């Protein structure tokens, strides 16, 4: 059975805050002399037919290599770019943020945290300025100086920058990378959002402080019941931090499910490649298995491969993979994969395969 007829892998529920349905984004390229001669218009197929749901009190990880389109998904959900097609729904209603007040209303509920805490804070302004501005923009500054001071202190306490008075009048260059990212998170919380879109929030931080920032986000998820989208190239951190993991390759989501399940029993050959590439001193991969995980570079998104986009790198590619894009196939425990290996009935003359491990055996 496929799940291509419904967005995401989990059933609909009232706890869904933000949803993408068949979201597609193609960026048109400037036409060259060759394009004019060939009478063609080319575009970058950054995101194709992406569907996902973000639920209150949960973290969803979106994992993939650089250039897979995961940051574009975050920007589309933040309504920083118009969609080529598809729909974004906030609180069950179609959401088109537009500009001005309607955009402000949207960002009050959906906040984006950028990867680079060094660039996201203005170096000439203090922490107090950044947080006060956020509170004022979103109408949460309070009615007087005392209330404003209290709200500023609350924000810094929430991100564990304590005592607040020690940080309020500092400039960004006086803070460590981890402290800056905490200020950026506090600024996002100034809107009192329901959703945080965290685009590689720890990738530019020293390894030693990454865990602290991830723990802070997890604490906020639980205390404030936030829906968090965690964009990362590090599938190991997704297992640690996220409830659900979605894997993205060349503009499409290729696998999804419970994080423990996806990282411990990856079904899609691309997910298997990601996991095999992640440094893990405890894992010794046999040479034969290393070859099986696949190699090579991601494809061009201007002319993406036909059929399954992973087929030029996939050691298990079959003839149909080169021409037919695979739909999503349900596996066990809510896991799914967009891969013809799991079309058991058609590929192997058997019933659809229910478990990735079984499927691996069935295709050998
Ligand atoms: Fe490999 Fe085919 Fe599955 Fe794509 S659909 S991952 S090419 S086996």
From TrEMBL:
An example molecular function term from Gene Ontology annotations: ATP hydrolysis activity
Query: What are the boundaries of the region Disordered?
Result: 278-306
Residue span(s) of domain ABC transporter: 31-275
A Gene Ontology biological process noted in the UniProt record is: transmembrane transport
**Pfam families named in the record:** ABC_tran (PF00005), oligo_HPY (PF08352)
Q: Which Gene3D superfamilies match?
A: P-loop containing nucleotide triphosphate hydrolases
Q: Which InterPro entries match?
A: AAA+_ATPase (IPR003593), ABC_transp_ATP-bind (IPR050319), ABC_transporter-like_ATP-bd (IPR003439), ABC_transporter-like_CS (IPR017871), Oligopep_ABC_C (IPR013563), P-loop_NTPase (IPR027417)
The alphabetical list of record keywords is: ATP-binding, Nucleotide-binding, Transport
Q: Which family does it belong to?
A: Belongs to the ABC transporter superfamily.
For this protein, the record's NCBIfam families field holds: oligo_HPY
Under which name does UniProt file this protein?
Answer: ABC transporter ATP-binding protein
């Amino acid at each position: 059975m496929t799940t291509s007829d419904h967005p995401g892998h989990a059933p609909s529920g009232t706890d869904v805050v933000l949803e993408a349905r068949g979201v597609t984004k193609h960026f048109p390229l400037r036409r060259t002399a060759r394009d004019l001669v060939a009478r063609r218009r080319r575009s970058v197929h950054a995101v194709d037919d992406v569907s996902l749901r973000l639920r209150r009190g949960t973290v969803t990880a979106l994992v993939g290599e650089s250039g897979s389109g995961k940051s574009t998904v975050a920007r589309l959900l933040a309504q920083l770019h118009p969609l080529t097609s598809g729909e974004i729904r906030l609180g069950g209603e179609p959401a088109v943020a537009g500009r001005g007040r309607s955009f402000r209303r949207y960002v009050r509920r959906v906040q984006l945290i950028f990867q680079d805490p060094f660039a996201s804070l203005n170096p000439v302004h203090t922490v107090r300025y950044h947080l006060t501005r956020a509170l004022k923009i979103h109408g949460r500054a309070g009615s007087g100086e005392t209330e404003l001071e209290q709200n500023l202190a609350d924000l810094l306490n929430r991100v564990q920058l304590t005592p607040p008075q020690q940080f309020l009048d500092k400039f960004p260059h006086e803070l460590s990378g981890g402290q800056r990212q905490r200020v950026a998170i506090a600024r996002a919380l100034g809107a009192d959002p329901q959703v945080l879109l965290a685009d590689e929030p720890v990738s530019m931080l020293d390894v030693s402080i990454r865990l602290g920032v991830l723990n802070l986000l997890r604490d906020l998820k639980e205390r404030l019941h936030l829906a968090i989208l965690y964009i990362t190239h590090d599938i190991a951190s997704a297992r640690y931090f996220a409830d659900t993991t979605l894997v993205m390759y060349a503009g499409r989501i290729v696998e999804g499910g419970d994080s423990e399940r996806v990282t411990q029993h990856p079904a899609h050959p691309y997910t298997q490649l990601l996991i095999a590439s992640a440094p893990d001193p405890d894992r010794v991969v046999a040479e034969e298995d290393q070859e099986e995980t696949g190699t090579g570079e991601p494809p061009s998104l201007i002319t993406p491969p036909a059929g399954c986009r992973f087929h030029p790198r996939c050691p298990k590619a079959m003839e149909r993979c080169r021409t037919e894009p695979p739909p999503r196939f349900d596996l066990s425990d809510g896991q799914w994969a967009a891969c013809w290996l799991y079309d058991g009935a058609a590929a192997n003359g058997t019933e659809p395969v229910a478990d990735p491990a079984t499927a691996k055996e069935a295709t050998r």
